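hey so u asked for the seq, here:
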Amino acid sequence: MKNLTKIAFAFLLLAGVMMNAQALKKGSVTYKLALIGNDEAAAMMGESTLTVHFDEKTQATEMNMMSGMMLMKTITPVGNVKDTKMAVEVMGMKYEIIEAGEEALNSNNGIGNLENATDVSYDKNDVKEIVGFKCYKANVKMIDGTSTIFYITEAIAPQTPIKETKIKLAGYPLEIITSTPQGDMTMTATSFAKESPKDCFVISGEGYTKVTMEQFRQQMGGM
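ran it, structure tokens below
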């Protein structure tokens, strides 16, 4: 479970990269998550998805791993990472992480994070259509020498980032491919909706145990 939690946070960080770019004023994008090159971890993940919701004031992610055995949600006001809220449901237990802030989005600092990017190049001849949007390739080089590949669309243009970075993408990523210690991680959009669910920017339901991030990690490490 500890390894799965690390993978979940790694995908959340990639979602943070995507949330740096939005232009349709509101909407929801659902991505299929895949881990290649690590059969054990891929089997543990099972069928997993991540949905990014956004409007002009708030951005949220909802991750579903192991076909619902682990659910993770983050809610971040635009321009105010410190007020990020986070909730996790795993194997019947429900946690609300208090004072999650930047730590919730940076738990695996450096994996696909544009804060550590040094350069970006575009290849507009390398194109593909993803959920009805024409996308082209962006190759982002990281300070550690690795690269992350994005397929971006300019139909959803950049807006104010959650966290200022030197490198910014020219459009919204609908596919991300990056190498991590857990294997090659891919996020590919499978659907786009112009309207987001009404409850996407709140933590709904009851029965959550409030814990700090450190207490949550200790809980996961013991499972």
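Residues 97 and 167 are 30 Å apart (CA to CA). The first helix runs from residue 2 to 18.
lmk if thats what u needed
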